[in-house]
From TrEMBL:
Domain of life of the source: Bacteria
One GO location term (cellular component): cytosol
Any GO BP: D-galacturonate catabolic process
Protein name: 2-dehydro-3-deoxygluconokinase
The protein's Enzyme Commission number: 2.7.1.45
Function field: Catalyzes the phosphorylation of 2-keto-3-deoxygluconate (KDG) to produce 2-keto-3-deoxy-6-phosphogluconate (KDPG).
Entry keywords, A to Z: ATP-binding, Carbohydrate metabolism, Kinase, Nucleotide-binding, Transferase
Enzyme class of the recorded protein, top EC level: transferase
Catalytic activity reported: 2-dehydro-3-deoxy-D-gluconate + ATP = 2-dehydro-3-deoxy-6-phospho-D-gluconate + ADP + H(+)
Annotated GO MF terms: 2-dehydro-3-deoxygluconokinase activity; ATP binding
InterPro entries: Carboh/pur_kinase_PfkB_CS, PfkB_Carbo_kinase, PfkB_dom, Ribokinase-like
Pathway as given in its UniProt record: Carbohydrate acid metabolism; 2-dehydro-3-deoxy-D-gluconate degradation; D-glyceraldehyde 3-phosphate and pyruvate from 2-dehydro-3-deoxy-D-gluconate: step 1/2
Protein's organism: Rhodovulum euryhalinum
């Protein structure tokens, strides 16, 4: 029995469903992780999502979707003057591209009510957030969010930070470096991707990425490299490395990292050793990238449903 909250922005997803038609879904990095974690964790675990939405019909539909998927929405704040963000997927000769409308989304107010934030983070076993959760906030709201997370961590929560770099969401490279460093400094577990870290911090190999986050105080750092080896440093178990089994037909890598994080977190929450939990994350991500979309219900049997 336990409790996990993921924090950030869930968006409306419009994906192509025939000429001029779109299917409406809901997705977003930390929300995807919560969705996968819900399916992996035992039913007596609470999996909550922390964000802000509007009071309009679309926001109602998003909350109904979350609740229908078993996600606790008690920590979602509702703002009468805003609504949820949206992205649309375009397919051009089989290649996916994304257009976003999220500049004014309600989720940007995530850290604007300190009491609500503190209540949302209280008594959690795991808190999950990402570079995107920070990027959508103002610099002072980033500080507030990280201070609240640090306080919950001091009270016993294990904090997971998925770096998820999105340069277009930040004010600039310096702000992105500062924001990621701020987030990682309040985390126990940091989940960077090497290609992104190399581009932003100039790391020349994954060990430099591991060392940088280790120096910020994380007890577990897992550096991902797509199909390449997953490099792990754990304060107790030391250094390990696992190469994902090759996937013959990669269809859509959306949510590879998000599902990896869910597999790892759920494994740790269930008492697995770090290497076993990491392998569970790798296996889940391999299944997710063989199917279209961020959320892939088909890979779970009924019995696996939390
Ligand atoms: P992110 O989505 O956070 O950038 P990655 O793209 O590195 O992260 O992918 C996360 C995990 O998903 C990898 O560590 C790996 O386990 C799995 N994965 C991603 N791409 C592939 C691939 N082409 N083949 C096999 N596994 C993959």
């Amino acid at each position: 029995m336990g409790s996990l909250i993921a924090l950030g922005e869930c968006m409306v997803e419009l994906s192509p469903a025939g000429e001029g038609l779109y299917r409406r879904g809901f997705a977003g990095d930390t929300f995807n992780t919560a969705w996968y974690a819900r399916r992996l964790l035992p039913p007596d675990w609470t999996v909550a999502y922390g964000t802000c939405v509007g009071t309009d019909a679309l926001s109602d539909q998003m909350l109904a979707f979350m609740a229908g998927e078993g996600i606790d929405t008690a920590a979602v704040r509702r703002l009468p003057d805003r609504t949820v963000g949206l992205y649309m997927i375009s397919l051009t000769a089989g290649e996916r591209s994304f257009s976003y409308w999220r500049g004014q989304s309600a989720a940007r107010a995530l850290a604007d009510d300190p009491d609500a934030l503190e209540a949302a983070l209280r008594n959690r076993d795991f808190i999950h957030f990402s570079g995107i959760s920070l990027a959508i906030l103002t610099p002072s709201a980033r500080d507030r969010l990280c201070a609240a997370i640090a306080q919950a961590r001091a009270a016993g929560a294990r904090v997971v930070f998925d770096t998820n770099l999105r340069p277009r969401l930040w004010e600039g490279e310096a702000a992105m470096r500062a924001g990621l460093t701020l987030g990682a400094a309040v985390a126990d577990i940091v989940l960077p991707s090497f290609d992104e870290e190399a581009a932003l911090f100039g790391d020349t190999n994954p060990d430099e990425t591991l060392a940088r986050y280790r120096a910020l105080g994380a007890g577990l750092v897992v550096v991902k490299q797509g199909a390449g080896p997953v490099m792990i440093w754990d304060r107790d178990a030391g250094r390990a490395e696992f190469t994902p089994k090759p996937v013959a037909r990669v269809l859509d890598t959306t949510a590879a990292g998000d599902s990896f994080a869910a597999g790892l977190i759920a494994g740790l929450a269930c008492g697995m050793a770090v290497d076993t939990a990491a392998r569970a994350g790798i296996r889940l991500a391999a299944q997710v990238i063989q199917a279209p979309g961020a959320l892939v219900p088909g890979i779970f049997g009924q019995a696996a449903r939390g």
